[in-house]
Structure formats: C-alpha cells, structure tokens
Amino acid sequence: MQVAHTPSLCGVLSDIDDTLTWEGRLVPSAFAKLHELQEQGVKVVLVTGRPAGWVDHIARMWPVDAVVGENGGLWAYMEDGKLVQRYFASAAERAQSRVKLAQLSQEILARYPGAGLASDQSYRALDLAIDFCEDVPPLADEQVQGILQCFLDAGAHAKISSIHVNGWFGHWNKLDGVRQLFKELWDLDLATQLDKWVYFGDSANDEPMFEAFKYSVGVANIAPFLEQMHFHPKWITQANGGMGFCEGIDALSLVTK
Questions:
Q1: pLDDT tens-digit profile of 187-244?
Q2: Closest Cα to residue 225, out of 161, 165, 149?
Q3: Strand pairing category for 82-87 and 74-79
C-alpha cells in the first residue's frame, strides 16, 4: 500500500469483522496495533455491525476509546470505570421494532431456507442480522441481494456486511453513530474531524464512512464489494483482514517504533 504524505492524524476508526479479523478470528497483530495506537495517544473507535452485547464487552475490555455498534444505532464508552451506552431509538421504539423484525425474520428465512439467523442475534437491541456465510454455507450473490430487497420492501434500512445482511427500522448508519459519539464524548462536530481521522473497512456497509472521511483504507478483501459501491476507500491494502489493517497502520506511520 503506497500512500501520499498525510498530515498528523489524531485517530483511527475501524470496522471489526474481516477488517481486524480474518477467517472468523481476531488477528493477534491487529489487536496489538490497537494497543500500540492507544499507548502513543492515538484515539481508536471501532465501528461495527455487531450487536449491543458485543459492544458492551469490547468497550470494557479492548484497548479502544469507544465502540459504535449495530451499524450506527448505538455507541458505548467507559467513563470513570463505568460503561456508558446510548441508543438512537427509545426503549418503546426498540420494542416496537423488535416485533416487526421478528415477523420479517420469519418471512426471510422461509423465502431463503439456506440463510440463518445470525448467532449473535439474541444480543441485538436494534436490528435483525441474517447470516449468509458466517455459520451457514455461503449463499449465492443473488440470494444475498434478495434478502437485502426483503428488508427494503418492508420499509427497513439494510446493509450488507461481509457475513450478514443487517436490517433495522430507523434512520441511521455508521456515520450517524460516529457523529453522535463524537458530540457526546468529546464535544466535537464530526464535520471538523473528517481530515483528522482515518477509517478502515472491508464491505458495503462501510460506504458512508468511505464517502465522508478524507483518509480511508479498504483491506484487500473489499475487492468483491467494490462494484456495488458508489464510494470507495482512498487506498486498498495488499493483505486481507487484520493483516491489511496492520499494513495500513504502518503505511500511514501511525505507530512509531
């Protein structure tokens, strides 16, 4: 990965699945990079489609400043040793949404019997995740697109990640969640930070971030998704997943030895 000179970056935003992980496992060197970034005063925020339950754990246990989860629908961070977790939707709205998503889940799984409910669904607060390759045999691209269309036809928002199709009733995406987090945690207007942070991602649900941030990196395994995306990362690594994340961090000189 060849990069032009970049001004001092104060933070890293990154997806998790197939960006810090590879073949379903966290890449040790990528996790080590998170530690190194924190030790050198570089802020780290993870931005994922994973559920509220995972966000709770990651915000508490990982070397990060904050986590945005469920494709922007919630965010969490530690403050004075206590977890702070916020949602775009109220408790009543979340309850109403769960009823509609449960019905939609039955319809999608009946129409696409090879698909499955994501194994982390029980930890979700806002969305429905349909597994098309994580714990089920991989579905054909047209089936994945069909699942996406089911969400859209029901009036839901939906995004395809590298492993799931996520759908939700509400108006947010990864960028919206990051915007809310920055305002709440640091009293920062995200519009003033778009050239001060770099974003790492691997799939179509990262597109709002690639569009917004001046500096963005796609790990090599983003290649199959590029044709369906209008906005691409500025750079693409040669290595996949967490290895590509490390490659990008090194190329941007975000960690000094």
A1: 999 999 999 999 999 998 999 999 999 999 999 999 999 998 999 999 999 999 999 9
A2: 161
A3: antiparallel
CA distance 100 to 140: 26
Torsion, Cα of 200, 206, 211, 217 (10° steps): 20
- Same domain? For 112 and 133 the reply is yes
Whether residue 146 is contained in a domain is answered as: yes
Last residue of some domain: 149, 168, 187?
168
pTM of the model: 0.93
Query: Which two structure tokens, joined as six digits, stand for 226?
Result: 């590029």
Alpha carbon distance 70, 168 (integer Å): 9
Q: Which domain holds residue 231?
A: 11-88+172-251
Structure tokens at 113: 């019997």
What is the token pair recorded at 92?
């009543």
Q: What's the CATH code of the domain at 25?
A: 3.40.50.1000
> What are the pLDDT digits (tens) for 118-152?
999 999 999 999 999 999 999 999 999 999 999 99
